[in-house]
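User: I'm curious whether this sequence folds into something compact or stays loose and floppy. Could you predict its structure so I can see for myself?
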Amino acid sequence: MKKVSTLLLLIFGFIFSLAQNTYYPQAFFDKKMAREMLGFGNSTIEGVASTKQKNNWGIKPLLGAKHYAPKGTVVMLFPVTPYFEEFYSMRKKYENRKTTVYMSEEAFKYRVEALTDDHGRFKFEKLKPGKYYLETIVNFTATASYQQQTGTTDTFNGYGNYMYSTPIYSTFFYGYDAANRESKFVEIKADGELKEINL
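Assistant: Here's the prediction. I'll summarize afterward.
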């Protein structure tokens, strides 16, 4: 019986792996270009990382409450090379629950990281003019609700005879851990420029 269970697990694992698609950009990654784009300059990008809880349709409402990135959240900055442009385009086009788009390990190394403070703020300094892509994962506690029957209301006629019951429902709220990816393209046009953004 144990062997049968192990075999079934292997079969389901194989089927699951077939259902998961992984893509990589096919463009050439020019590490010399990426290195030069991340060279030292006199510009700064600073901002605040936050997110909003998605509704039942997977949309973040405009007027929803903000959840600021916890202290120590990593914000990544990538130079927008032709390789990165293909990666981003593929991710927008193909990525879903069954498909993941990755950049190569070498391309992923060419990035700069910053950590958020107690208020979700971050800063990248000594940047050159150019186009950059910023991304972070904001973890937060989301809230949801459910209804549960907690009693009934009985109805009687004028003679005191029971007619029917109506259920009474109460709404209960609970919290759960959630995370959203937040990102933005930022372009620095002149050396010494300060860009303030909301991520």
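Summary: The longest helix spans residues 2-19. The CA atoms of residues 186 and 198 lie 11 Å apart.
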